[in-house]
Amino acid sequence: MNHNPLKSLNSFSVRHLDDGNGLGKVIFTNRIQINESMRLAFSAAPIIFQDEIIKKSDIRVTVVNDDVISVQIHSQEHSDTRTDWRKGARVDLNYSIFDLPDHIETQCVKIVQSLGLRFAAIDLILDNQGDLWFLEANPNGQWAWIEQRTGAPITSKIVNALEKI
């Protein structure tokens, strides 16, 4: 039996229709330990878990047509951002441009194109062995904060793409 720590696959937003303010509530990715009685209880519910990938950092890849901008999020520098970098909302979280291998860039572009999109924000994990793990491709992923923190030219890539329509 595998007793590795599990974590939820991804966070999601929950919108309460009766709260009157229209604000969503975010449930962050959390590390949990599951015992046998919990496994039995979970078997009757639509819940998705994944084995935890011990990571060196998170990578956010922004794809605009054939242009790819990759940023390393140094999430492991702070205990509150190790499981989910968004959890700490830290202003001192470090970001840097990341040199994604060419074949991974090509795969990211192909994923976006295969989904019939021209833009997506792709989240990857870089593990301690240097391997990259795909988490998700978000067709409405946030990007302005990346540009503000790193100077990556995402706005100009989007403007250029829109001018070609």
TrEMBL record:
Residues annotated as domain ATP-grasp fold RimK-type: 25-161
A GO CC term assigned to this protein in UniProt: cytoplasm
Pfam families with a match to the protein in the record: RimK (PF08443)
GO molecular function: ribosomal S6-glutamic acid ligase activity
InterPro entries found in the cross-reference section: ATP-grasp_RimK-type
GO biological process: SOS response
Transmembrane annotation, as ranges: none
UniProt cross-references to PANTHER family, sorted A to Z: BETA-CITRYLGLUTAMATE SYNTHASE B-RELATED, RIBOSOMAL PROTEIN S6 MODIFICATION PROTEIN
Name of the protein this chain belongs to: ATP-grasp fold RimK-type domain-containing protein
Biological classification of the source: Bacteria, Pseudomonadati, Pseudomonadota, Alphaproteobacteria, Acetobacterales
